[in-house]
Amino acid sequence: MKLSFHGGAREVTGACYLLEAAEQKFLIDCGLFQGCDVCSDMNERPFKFDSKSINAVFVTHAHVDHVGRIPKLVKHGFSGVIYSTPPTKDLARHLLEDALSLSERQNNRLYAEEDLEKAFRIWRTVSYGEKIALNGAEIIFHDAGHILGSSLIEINAEGKKFLFSGDLGNVPSVLLPPPAKVGGVEYLVVESAYGNREHEAPAERTLQLERAMEDVASRRGTLLIPAFATERTQDLLFLINEMVNFKRVPEMPVFVDSPLASRVTSVYEEYPAYYGQGIQDLYLKHPNLFKFKKLKFTESVEESKAINDVSPPKVVIAGSGMMQGGRILHHARRYLRDKNSILMVVGYQASGSLGRRLLDGARNVKIFKEDVAVSAEIRKINGFSAHADSSQLFSFVSPMRDTLKRVFVVQGESSQALHFMQEIRDRLGIQSDAPLLGDEFEV
Ligand SMILES: [Zn+2]
């Protein structure tokens, strides 16, 4: 059997793994490379395998760095079956359509609308625990607790058991259960985005959000939150809803100024069975987990502009999460100048992004070619990460120590992947590698 690495190798993005087993070729994820200078070149480079020869694609979750090259695979002749959970399929449709319009805008066409449409025609859905039998191979999806519908993928073939982690959730997640435990795993492909970093305690995240809302209320300022459309926005809405409900914060208008985040929130509302147990119980009593009185989802540009006319205090949640584009920039241009306002960073900010520069203390930034003097307060909450941190990653792997024969550490920058690989070798005594792009292993 052969396992090869076509992305996610010593880098966070581009997840794409080829397992040749039981006389078939399976791809696990087929994601876009994102956030680097050479990423568009890497995305355009031909696959090292023949797309036509792939029998099936198993999708761990809907993030574009895990699904973004699927339409390209279809364009190059893939005609097998794509498998994922139902929420992954629905979320992927919104996220891929958004990615397509972005790439169209950048004149960087990897694939056409029709390839995207075809991908969804050959895309089947499976539930957690359901067995897929394919000519002697058996595949089972388990909950990964990272975003709605995210999965660990177990593949049994030729008497061997493989597990692909996709991205692993941060425990406790605001909305989702912890990753499932899978027994008997012999070959593990595991993520390492935070292979050498720890998150702050989860109670801290709620407290800091609460404090920021209280502060803008007393100063009559605006709380501006750049947020990723998937999971982060729903986490924030759920927590704000709870705080308003229990009167822990003053009521104020809250805007979600991102059409993508609105669509993603609708998908979250459709699948309560995928929430963690406590959230499911709550849902039965209060079905509007993400909606409350003063919340408004803004669709049109006019509605977005009209947010300016609403007098503070108010909260504006908008994309993009790293402030590299999107409606957040219009709000940043206005409110960064206001000393009563707070910009709250709740997610990872790549170096070079506007979010990172502000966190690093920039007092002057350029937005739409305009000089903006930064008077607003810049704050950061670390605990909203949807990824397991280094001790959580270790706790995921260590219960499998008795059966594991080999571990492949992926989806982390070199420093993170190598650190986690070494930890598995030293503390568990298991053969472990951090593959490079294109590496191939006989297993
Ligand atoms: Zn992810």
Explained architecture:
This protein is α/β, with parallel strands linked by helices and 443 residues long. It folds into two domains: 253 residues, Ribonuclease Z/Hydroxyacylglutathione hydrolase-like (Metallo-beta-lactamase, Chain A, 4-Layer Sandwich), CATH 3.60.15.10; 179 residues, Rossmann fold (3-Layer(aba) Sandwich). Helix content is 32%, strand content 22%. The chain is built from 14 helices and 22 strands. The strands form four sheets. Strands 6-5-4-3-2-1-22 form a seven-stranded mixed beta sheet. Strands 7-8-9-10-11-20-21 form a seven-stranded mixed beta sheet, covered by helices on one side. Strands 14-13-15-12-16-19 form a six-stranded parallel beta sheet, with helices on both faces. Strand 8 and strand 9 form a beta hairpin. The protein binds zinc ion. Zinc ion (ZN) binds next to loops.
Overview features:
443 residues, alpha/beta, Metallo-beta-lactamase, Chain A, Rossmann fold, seven-stranded mixed β-sheet, 14 helices, 22% strand, globular, binds zinc ion
